[in-house]
Amino acid sequence: MVVNSLRSWLHQLRQEGKLKYVNREVDRRYELAAVSKKADGLYCLQFNHVRGSNIPVVTNIAHSRDLIALALGVRKEKLAEHFAWAQGHPGQCQLIPPGQAPVKSKIMQPDLRSLPIVIHHEKDGGAFITAGLLIAKDPETGIRNVSIHRLQMFSPKHLGILMLPRHLRQIYQKAEAMNVPLDIAIVIGVDPIPLLASQAQVPLGYDEFAVAAALYGQPFPMVRCETVNLEVPAQAEIVLEGRMLPHVRHMEGPFGEFPKTYTPSYPKPMIELTAMTTRNNPIYHTIVPASNEHFLIGGIPREGGLFETMSKTVTCVRHVRFTPGGTCRFHAIVSIAKKSDEEPKNAILAAINGSQDIKHIVIVDQDINIFNNLDVEWAIATRTQAARDVIIARDLPGNLLDPSARNSISDKMGIDATVPLGHYERFAKMHIPGEEKIVLNNYLSN
């Protein structure tokens, strides 16, 4: 079955035995997020009875590399390379009539109270939309930008937004300098491919939905909005249309973010909604912050971007992985096929220059499985000497949400955990011949 919508993806998950239903009533304040966390890495959940709403909620729809590889049709070891290829080979978006777009089944005035917007954590400042694709166009070029931002519900028609210093903030600042509102659309309820594409590490002026089309392997169907000059995915569950107001600020936050800490409350821009469209019987998607889904949707596109960037300067790069322990932002593992003992340090510097988020990089040989944390730690333990193999770079741009950073300024560290050329025998892993063929249950008896 081709995955082209949230519903087709849920059908695929059900066939894989990865979708479970919660049919008892749950409270959207804490309880839904708590149950989701218990299932994190195990199952996608569909909550069919959320208190105060008749709309079901799904979580954990992309909670493992295996599932994301299934959605993309590649082996999980090739996710970074495949995503890098998609960024370099953009596809096309296809505009279709409203009558062919399921998301146009119902057109109504916006009322956020009708949606099961979740309060996730104890100290969160309120209910937040966390899985909304925010679409806007550059007011100078007209080129579309797609990204994900936390959106706090202030009133039935108003949302607050946190914009990190990335493309949407630049686009909004252009509109604000013109003293005009910025048309936006918030898309809730899509399959993993547009979610991943929204996180593509591409320059300003590059349409992230073109990456989605490349990942689909076919044109991406879009439909025009009702009240703003934008197009949205035709197969989406829910679309909120509106405008980001110039020179208007409102206190937003606190909110529990991906570093597993709270970011404080301070004034942020405000969105005023103008319309809402949905499918018949829509499904709402929420991403629980700091879950595997949150980490991987952000992490795998960053792996693809880093793989592409590093490969331009370090030709021996083979695989790239951001680790969940490093929130799929701060820690990177890179395997190389080195030809000189200088290449690991060049790879460290290329990684630091390739991602502002990265704080710690480990470079390993190809015999190390970068998806096995024990294997990586073993390489550090047996192949690294701190005085010789550790590089520290001070006072570089970091991530605004890193609680240890100093006004977004961070120190970076690289570890060379590779074997010196010509000395592999001294560092080789011990091996029992035939161990990999043993099936333990064939040897055991009751």
Q: Report the end-to-end length measured between terminal Cα atoms.
A: 42 Å
> What overall form do the CA principal axes indicate?
globular
Count helical runs.
12
CATH topology annotation of the largest domain? Pnp Oxidase, Chain A
Q: How many strand units? A: 23
Secondary-structure-based class equals alpha+beta
> What percentage of the residues does DSSP assign to strands (E)?
25-35%
Q: Judging by the overall fold, what is the CATH architecture of the largest domain?
A: Roll
**What radius of gyration results from the CA coordinates?**
23 Å
Give the CATH superfamily of the largest domain.
Answer: Electron Transport, Fmn-binding Protein, Chain A
Low-confidence stretches: none
Largest sheet: 9 strands, antiparallel
Task: Provide structural commentary.
Strands 5, 6, 7, 8, 9, 10, 11, 14 and 17 form a 9-stranded antiparallel β-sheet that branches. A 5-stranded mixed β-sheet has the order 19-20-21-23-22, sandwiched between helices. The chain has 12 helices and 23 strands. Strand 19 and strand 20 form a beta hairpin. The chain has 2 domains: 287 residues, Pnp Oxidase, Chain A, CATH 2.30.110; 114 residues, 3-Layer(aba) Sandwich (UbiD C-terminal domain-like), CATH 3.40.1670.10. The chain is 26% helix and 28% strand. The model has no long low-confidence stretch (mean pLDDT 94). The longest helix has 22 residues.
